[in-house]
């Protein structure tokens, strides 16, 4: 069975005046794939993602996300994706229950659906004791897992994760990756941006952006073989120094 | 000893940030505090730099007591906090001059100490700190923390959020500073940086799990770790978790790190079990222990 492409990008370009932030990048991401999008600070990652999630119009090139065109259907894209970032994910001053209800409402779920989802999610994550606690009182690892589940409330086709496990303790980090594997296994495409190279090792395929261009795209295993090194960190060092 | 801590504890309300911490850092040592966010690393730095008073215990830095001789400590240590601490509206040059003046010295007087690092950012010396890239900010912050020639240098997560190239350069700089007999206490959540330190303390939830050199920590770990892979990572993790006698199962990049409870563990039995669950392209191979493996076992 041929897997459908959830993200299809062709010569996508974004210019700010004379500066080309994203320079004719092309790639595709399949359904259920865990795709790592890597690059140094200033390589153009954020600009590229803003175009993919429908909040910035490209200068030229083509891109469809979840089957929708980034130029003409940005709002459809927003309804069909989830987004979670290390910096912002949940409201600290709302309780666990309030956060779930709030985001469920934003995504247009009915009261009944929100209640069902909330019960399911609280049980899966073992949060029964803390549903009425403020999110800011939770340990970081719990917050991250809750944020991930909340970003999946509306069953998006693609979830975008921005440095999802940076700074998290090693055991919780594994639990988090197990959740990601499960999500991908169930058919959701996972798009991870990070400059933590050890996070890159978990992805099915990764792309590395340097100065607005995609300089490498392959499985972590093949990339390491190609550059004859043991870690993605060393792959990155080789690419960035050339 | 340039840093000593004896039974240091600190709580914020009901949260125990540090719980009975004791450790020593030798003169000229590059000592790493390795642990995730919330482990207590920053609290420890703030106590040692005299910005916070511990609830219990004693500590000295460069021979001075952190409570009674706090002024002496402030004159003899350099501190690079986790969050960028420079003046965003001052240029590179102005920031450096400002810190030199505060410590009653001049940039010229200790220039040899920062020269290697400063030449890399000097071409941009008229640029405001707020407009610098992450790697450049980090280099400037290090110069400012060094300009008064401190005996002890405290670096709180200097490489967090910095790309791998800058991270590598930063560690090379620390190695060169060490040759100049500066004692360095550095914290990091990146487990792979542990091996770059002389000795490390693994820390989580305010408690120290282990103190030793990275090579000894790895050499003293007795369990055998196996790299397991297959065509389906999700199913593989489920199967391994159900395997009788499993001790731990942790995803580790393209592999799963598996350890067994039994000394006579046979990889062939596991192979057949996975094969019977319809997994394909199965590989099972003994692998090197990493600091992260030890950390997870201790924190289990």
Summarize the structure in words:
The complex is a heterodimer of chains A (242) and B (300). With 242 residues, chain A is α/β, with parallel strands linked by helices. Chain A has nine helices and ten strands. In chain A, the strands form two sheets. Chain A has a six-stranded mixed beta sheet with strand order 6-7-8-3-9-10. A four-stranded antiparallel beta sheet of chain A has the order 2-1-4-5. In chain A, helix 3 crosses helix 4. Chain A is globular, with a radius of gyration of 18 Å. Chain B has two domains: 217 residues, Rossmann fold (3-Layer(aba) Sandwich), CATH 3.40.50; 75 residues, Alpha-Beta Plaits. In chain B, helix 3 runs parallel beside helix 5 and helix 4 runs antiparallel to helix 5. At the A-B interface, helix 6 and helix 9 of A face helix 6, helix 8, strand 12 and helix 10 of B.
Topology:
The complex is a heterodimer of chains A (242) and B (300).
Chain A: E1 5-16, E2 19-30, E3 34-39, H1 45-52, E4 60-65, E5 68-69, H2 74-79, E6 81-85, H3 96-106, H4 111-125, H5 140-151, E7 158-162, H6 170-185, E8 189-194, H7 197-200, E9 205-210, E10 213-218, H8 220-227, H9 232-241
Parallel strand pairs in A: 3-8, 3-9, 6-7, 7-8
Antiparallel strand pairs in A: 1-2, 1-4, 4-5, 9-10
Helix pairs in contact in A: 3-4, 5-6, 8-9
Chain B: E1 3-12, E2 15-25, E3 30-34, H1 41-48, E4 56-61, E5 64-65, H2 70-76, E6 77-80, H3 92-102, H4 111-121, H5 134-146, E7 152-156, H6 164-179, E8 183-188, E9 199-204, E10 207-212, H7 214-219, E11 225-229, H8 233-242, E12 246-252, E13 255-260, H9 267-276, E14 283-287, H10 291-299
Parallel strand pairs in B: 3-8, 3-9, 6-7, 7-8
Antiparallel strand pairs in B: 1-2, 1-4, 4-5, 9-10, 11-13, 11-14, 12-13
Helix pairs in contact in B: 3-5, 4-5
């Amino acid at each position: 069975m041929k897997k459908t492409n959830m993200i299809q990008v062709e010569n996508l370009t974004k210019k700010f005046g004379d500066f080309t932030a994203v320079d004719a990048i092309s790639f595709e991401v399949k359904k259920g794939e865990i795709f790592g999008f890597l690059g140094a600070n200033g390589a153009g990652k954020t600009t590229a993602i803003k175009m993919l999630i429908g909040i910035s119009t490209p200068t030229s090139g083509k891109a469809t996300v979840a089957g929708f065109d980034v130029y003409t259907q940005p709002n459809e894209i927003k309804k069909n994706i989830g987004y979670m970032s290390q910096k912002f994910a949940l409201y600290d001053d709302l309780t666990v229950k309030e956060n779930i209800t709030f985001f469920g409402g934003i995504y247009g779920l009915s009261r009944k659906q929100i209640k069902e989802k909330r019960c399911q999610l609280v049980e899966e994550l073992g949060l029964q004791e803390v549903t009425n606690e403020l999110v800011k009182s939770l340990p970081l690892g719990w917050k991250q897992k809750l944020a991930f589940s909340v970003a999946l409330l509306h069953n998006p086709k693609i979830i975008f994760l921005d440095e999802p496990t940076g700074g998290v303790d090693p055991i919780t980090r594994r639990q988090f990756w197990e959740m990601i594997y499960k999500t991908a296994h169930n058919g959701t495409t996972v798009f991870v941006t990070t400059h933590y190279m050890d996070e890159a090792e978990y992805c099915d395929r990764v792309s590395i952006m340097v100065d607005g261009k995609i300089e490498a795209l392959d499985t972590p295993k093949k990339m390491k073989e190609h550059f004859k090194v043991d870690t993605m960190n060393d792959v990155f060092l080789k690419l960035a120094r050339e | 000893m340039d840093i000593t801590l004896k039974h240091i504890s600190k709580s914020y309300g009901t949260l125990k940030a540090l719980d009975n911490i004791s450790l020593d850092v030798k003169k000229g040592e590059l000592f790493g505090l390795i642990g995730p966010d919330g482990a207590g690393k920053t609290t420890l730095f703030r106590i040692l730099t005299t910005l916070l008073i511990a609830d219990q215990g004693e500590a000295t830095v460069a021979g001075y007591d952190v409570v009674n001789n706090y002024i002496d400590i402030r004159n003899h240590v350099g501190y690079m906090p986790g969050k960028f601490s420079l003046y965003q509206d001052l240029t590179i040059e102005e920031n450096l001059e400002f810190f030199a003046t505060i410590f009653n010295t001049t940039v010229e007087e200790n220039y040899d100490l920062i020269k290697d690092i400063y030449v890399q950012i000097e071409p941009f010396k008229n640029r405001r700190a707020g407009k610098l890239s992450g790697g450049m900010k980090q280099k400037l912050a290090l110069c400012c923390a060094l300009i008064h020639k401190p005996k002890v240098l405290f670096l709180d997560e200097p490489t967090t959020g910095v790309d791998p190239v800058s991270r590598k350069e930063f560690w090379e700089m620390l190695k060169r500073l060490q040759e100049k007999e500066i004692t360095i206490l550095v914290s990091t959540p990146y487990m792979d940086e542990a091996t770059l330190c002389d000795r490390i303390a693994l820390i989580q939830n305010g408690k120290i799990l282990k103190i030793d050199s990275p090579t000894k920590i790895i050499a003293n770990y007795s369990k055998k770790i196996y790299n397991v892979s297959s065509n389906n990572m999700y199913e593989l993790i489920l199967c391994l978790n159900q395997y009788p006698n499993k001790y731990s199962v942790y995803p580790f990049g393209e592999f799963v790190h598996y350890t067994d409870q039994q000394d006579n563990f046979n990889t062939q039995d596991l192979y057949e079990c996975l094969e019977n669950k319809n997994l394909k392209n199965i590989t099972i191979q003994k692998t090197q222990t990493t600091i992260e493996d030890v950390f997870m076992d201790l924190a289990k």
